[in-house]
Structure formats: structure tokens, C-alpha cells
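Researcher: We're teaching a course module on how sequence relates to structure. For the next exercise, students receive a sequence and then see the predicted structure as C-alpha cells, so they can try to spot secondary structure elements on their own. Here is the exercise chain.
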Amino acid sequence: MKRLRLPDLLKGIAIFFMIQVHIMELFIDYPGQSSVVGKISLFLGGPFTAMVFMMVMGYFVAASKKSLRQNMSRGIKIFVLGFLLNIGLNFHLLLKIKYADWPYNSWEYIFGVDILYLAGLSIIILAVIKRLPKKLQLPVSFGLLAAVLLLTGTMNIWLTFPERNYITPFIGGTYSWSYFPLFPWLAYPLAGYFFFFAQNGIQQFISGKKVFTSSAFLLIVFLLMYFSKMGFDTTINLQAYYHHTLKYGIWALGLLIIWSSIFYLIVIKYQASLFEKFLAWMGKNITLIYVVQWLIIGNIATAIFQTQPLNRFPLWLFGILGVTLFVSWLLAKTKIRLA
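Model: And here is the predicted structure for the students to work with:
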């Protein structure tokens, strides 16, 4: 499949925002996180990262010519990679728990529902949906998207049990070690999947109804601004962000429509610059970079968890970013594929 500029560009920007927010969350102390810079960092690490990854992934699952078996196999591999990465990024912490009697539950870190677990499960679910007749792809994907966002609040109540377990956190609930459960996060792969089948109709509508489209675009911008406090406050409150419900989900999707539209206009108007090519390379190698940065950040965080002042944030960011990209480049040269 020919690579498209826009998805790689969006993923490249997202991977940078993701690395910086991981450093802010795990390295920087509470005063730093509570500062204006800290809050902006947390916000940039919200809708512009995981949601972008998942929407782009959903789009390409829909576009893929892979069979059910191939997609299922890929989903399982990514899920297993999530399990191995959790052990790797928490390796220093797991040693402390075992040999230094640190009072933490190791299973919560091994089965912490991070984005690779979500990606693997989402690919499996989308692979099943792809078996439906083509005429059903559009309504089914949109219906499931709406259902996931509508039902998340209820699922958070139904699936949060006083007894500790490591199954339901993958589906929903408000468990502290469940960052990307299927409810609400399955909505974003479904959004990308839906867009693939809807894009021709959307393009024709925009071409034929330019005045209406412009008005709708301005209305979305107005509504985003009107509900911006809710959106911002939810994003920087990590527990609320990871377990958000319908209102925030709609706001985030609206924000990503504007975000993607801006970069779409840039892509169609200008030739790829050297900087865009660099971001696109990051986007192309997103899984590899994601794994490398977590192995570095996760193990360092055990030693310095939330102890660093804000003025050290740039040093940590560009130091880890540089090492991550260099190691990822070396690994990419060896043709290593993680998924």
C-alpha cells in the first residue's frame, strides 16, 4: 500500500507529544505538573496522541487487504507485545518489588492496560467486523462507535468490582491500572474505520455543499471553544481522561477533525519539507519508537519518580528523545518489525 503523507505526519507529531507527556507525568514533581507549562504538556499528550494513533490504525485496518486470519494474527502479536513491554518498562520496579519489598502489586504493572493491549484487541474486533458485507461496514462501524461512547459511563459502573481482577479492566471500569480499556477507547479505531468507508461520500458532500460545510466547520470550532474548559480540565485529569465518557469523546473527536483538517490543507498545499519527512519517518516507525521510549522512561522513572523540578524538563525531554530516535534508527536499519 502506498504510504500517505497525512497519517504519517499526524503520527509523527503524536509520538513527540507522547514522549514529552510521559516525561512530564513520571519525572516532573507535582509543582511542575501543576504549572502552566505542566498543564499544557498534559493537554498536548491527550487527544493529539493516543486518539490519533488509534484512529489512523482503524483507518488502515479498513483499507488493508489482509485476511481475517492475518489481521487476527497481527492483533494477537501486538497484544503479546504489550505484555512483554509492560514487563520490560517496569523491569526495574519489578525487581524492587521482589527484592526490596516495595509495597506494590506487580500484576497491576504487568497487566496495566496500556495502548498496545488496546491496539491488539481493537484489530481483532475490527477484523471480525470486516467479515460483514461491504454495505454494512458504514452503518455498523458508526453504530458501534456511538454505542461505545454512550455505554462507557454504564460500563464503568458495571465493570468496577471491589474484588481485584485482571480481566474486566481490559474491557472497562475505572481501575487505576487500566489506562486504555475498550470502553471508551475502542471508539477511536472505529472512528478511523468508519472514515475509510465514509470518505468518498464526505468529499462529494464537501464539494457540493461548500457553504454548508464551511458553516459546519465554524460551528465545530465554536462548540470546541465553548466547551474548551471541560475538555482541557478532563484531559489534564488523567483518571478522568483515561475513563472519559460521551461528552468528552464528542469534544475530542471534534478537536481531531479540526486538527486533521489543518494538516490536510498543509499537505495538499505544500511539498514535504525536510522536517515533515523527519516527522513522517517517526510516524512510519511509531511502534518501534513507542517501545524504545517506554523501555528507557519506564526504568528511569522507578529511580526518580516525580522528583525532578520543571527546569529539568527540557533536558530530560531532548536527551531521551535523542537516545530514543537514535536507537530506533539503528533498529529500523536492521529491518526489525514489532508488528
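Model: If you want an answer key for the exercise: The chain has 18 helices and no strands. Residues 195 and 202 are 9 Å apart (CA to CA).
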